[in-house]
Predict the structure.
Amino acid sequence: MNKLLTLSFILIFSVYSTWAQQPVLKTLSHEAMMSIKRVGVPKISPDGQWLIYSQQSVSYDSESNTSDLWLASSDGTQAPRKITQTKAGEDNYFWHPSERKVFFTAKREGDESAQLYILDLSNGGDAQRVSSFSLGIGSPKISADGNKVLFSAKVFPGVFTDSLNKKYAEEKKKLKYKARVYTGFPIRYFDTWLDEKQSHVFVLDLKTQQIQNVFTGISLIQSKGFQLGSFTWAPDQQSVVFTATIDLHTTAYQNSISKIYQVSIQGGKEKLLVDDQGDYSSIDFSEDGKYAIALGAPLNQTKVYQLSRLYRFTWPEMSNKTELLSSLDRPINQMEVSKDYILASIEDQGFDRLIRISLQDGSYQSVLGGKQGSYNQVSISKRENVFAYQYNSMASPMEVLVHHMDKEVAISNANQALLKNYDVKDPEEFWTQSRGKKVRSFLLRPASFDPTKKYPLLVLMHGGPASSYKDIYGYRWNPHVIAGTEYVIVMTDYTGSVGYGEKFAQDIQFDPFKGPGQEILDAANDAIKRYPFIDGSRQAASGASYGGHLANWLQATTSHFKCLISHAGLVNSEAQWGTSDFVYSRELMNGSAPWIPTKTWKEQNPMRFAANFKTPILLTVGENDFRVPINNTLENWSILQRQKVPSKLIVFPEENHWVLKAENSRFHYQEIRNWLATYLK
């Protein structure tokens, strides 16, 4: 008997000791989220032996923010080491095609604008500046022989040299009046008032440091609606191939069209390479120069969304146009082209997947499949089966990895030590039948989850609408920080979301709010039935941008929720049409201009149902937001105050469509959680 008691005591003590030794995981706070290192895009060396990437540390004091380049061996045998240590961060970094040298742009001490620098990794020492160009160096691309660099810069129309542009800018500064004058469209973009400047392509000779504007002789720049798109070296290395539109000024009443052109680096007249009804957004070439690879879409002025298609042309004839990847109805995030294949990241039902596309027949196969999370920003080397990429998930911030001879090698590991102390869970996926279709949702359990407890439900609605809730790490609306230990979160990809086929994204047309709103409600009810730990009597909904629009629609049409949160959301779609930086897409969505009273304009405008507003709501907005301008939030505020609805308004004078400044972000998260706590106790 005594032996039995002794054994029982030992067993209980052993179990208790094991439990006591388990670390107590913390809840991810805003402060912890901000301490996470921001790992940037990897660039692998042509020989596949090395890679570089940026790493940023963010502080509440913006003066203390740092961003540097790191170097690592691709096989993981040598730990990453920092190779720059200046206050100014580095951007647009890339490798010399045949030497162990790294280029990047930076605005260092004494630089008025971003300049090009070179860092010789073989000989050591500090990076050396190789340009002195007052207009700055943008999107640089090196030639195959390593002797020249293409880049873009903004110039005043008809003013082609650096010195003349500088003189023109100085003369404008002397003007005693301040006015913006326009005779065409658009006039604003995101958070910036547009001016008369145009983006041109320049070539920098690295040996002589001479810079030449290659657009001096092209006729396109004479057009009122000229705008440069993408550009790259042609295989002959003596010319530039680029995409551009000449009808941007018509986008108040139609979609603009970008075509593909070629021009010599010595200047001269441009050559139109493809004269069809396609709208091309990017251009690249196979490694051997046999094919031009373009992303584009068939011209369509009637659909609110179009999937970009992948096309192959025979070079230099630009003939035999062939659609690659025709069997896969998914958007491409980013890609790189080799001799025989394209390695691409695609968006697929809430995940970013890697696929390998044959240049010969357009067939594809999955790469690195099966792992939860998302893959993006691939960088391929000339060494077979060696490439770098980014990986992240809702539970794991961005890190750099390398696929090295059939092995996955973790390179950056910048946040592994930090995150092991925090309770950050992977989301769970479920599908709901709604309106005759299936919609996908992610469910996230709170930190310190107890299955015996009942938790309030917070519905998060994504923006777009041509976007989705993906299994990626976020900082603006991080679900772990919002959830804390108190809330279960559901994130639904309503009709209009991408990654589910072109038709699913297009089906939001003429039904911008009612249908998606019903799907969101159906998914929330489905979650309550599936998960017994959700308290269906305590629900809230929150969204930003299009998600904010939907929050205001829910305000207008249901009393289902205890409270709502709307950031940068429209309440009056007619006013949004007239004051946003984009116009025509809103006309396509609603079926006409707003003075033609279509059914959609009349029946799916939240403001028309203001008499129904009663749910307590928090409104937040950036004063410099031109995508959903502040007038919509102010109109919403007036309605709420007129209707005596419990409400709160927060305006961020320094912010645009997003709340990015660290202290503003911390305050925003605090106010969101305080609002939820008030109504979901």
Observations:
- The mean pLDDT is 94.
- The longest helix spans residues 2-21.
- The CA atoms of residues 261 and 380 lie 26 Å apart.
